[in-house]
Amino acid sequence: MFKNVIVKTPGKSYVNGLTTSDLGTPDYDKTLKQHAAYVEALKKCGVEVTHLQASETFPDSTFVEDTAVLTPNFAVVTNPGAASRNREIEEMEPVLKDFYNKLYYIKAPGTLEGGDILQIEDQFYIGVSTRTNEEGARQLKKILEAEGYKATIVPLKKFFHLKTGISYIGNNTILAAGEFIDHPDFAQYDKITISDEEEYAANCIRVNDYVIIPKGFDESVRKIQEAGFETIELEMSEFQKQDGGLSCLSLRF
Ligand code: CIR
Fold first, then answer.
1. Tens digit of pLDDT for each residue in 73-94?
2. How far does residue 200's CA lie from ligand 1's centre (Å)?
3. How far is the CA of 118 from the centre of ligand 1 (A)?
4. Ligand 1 neighbourhood includes 245 CB (under 6 angstroms)
5. Ligand 1 contact, 84 CB (< 6 A)
6. Cα 203-209-214 angle, rounded to 5 deg
7. What is the pLDDT of residue 184?
8. Of 81, 94, 117, 234, which has the highest C-beta tally within 10 A?
9. What sign does the CA torsion over 192, 230, 67, 24 have?
10. Residue 129: which pLDDT band, with cuts at 50, 70 and 90?
């Protein structure tokens, strides 16, 4: 069960953030509406929402997930690999100190972004991507193992972040797209396969009784419901334009 989430309103500078997509520039008003609906959905899931003000200095900072890895007993402040995002951690660290006495840090030359971290019960998977390097992954693995968790490093082939292509939705079940569909590291889980056409739906979040899934991916939502999960669908078009998914917009703990 999650008790808390941290979110951050997108600033006006959001439209100038990083992206690899060709879906066009986000519409700022629509972005704010979609973000507000995201916050409402989280409240429906029964969590306490810590809502941070927009930061114009960091266009991508609404994607708070990348700044930390959180567990019940400790927080790890990451070291984002994207230069324009690296100092977002300076805005997040004081917020984390309100909730945690025990903080760890990923240190240069290690880089790591939270989007590359997938937790499945007491097992963590750490993606090595263009944002998380091997040194960052090794540092996190060491921290997690010292704290009694298991950790596996997973080099990515194509996906941007690990969780761009895989999610854990509880009950031993993963959603897997592309390179993760037949990936040996995830063979022990029950798997819902996400088709190439619906790849964006592979990034979902399970928050207490609900799986939150992006709107417009009918085949994926049907499979998730048929597997016995309750779903909430959210319009995510303006976040998809900046390579962001549902998990990226919150820190859940
Ligand atoms: C970036 O390129 O960093 C942002 N535009 C998107 C970050 C998405 N974050 C995530 O998947 N955890």
1. 999 999 999 999 999 999 999 9
2. 13
3. 15
4. yes
5. no
6. 30
7. 98
8. 117
9. positive
10. very high
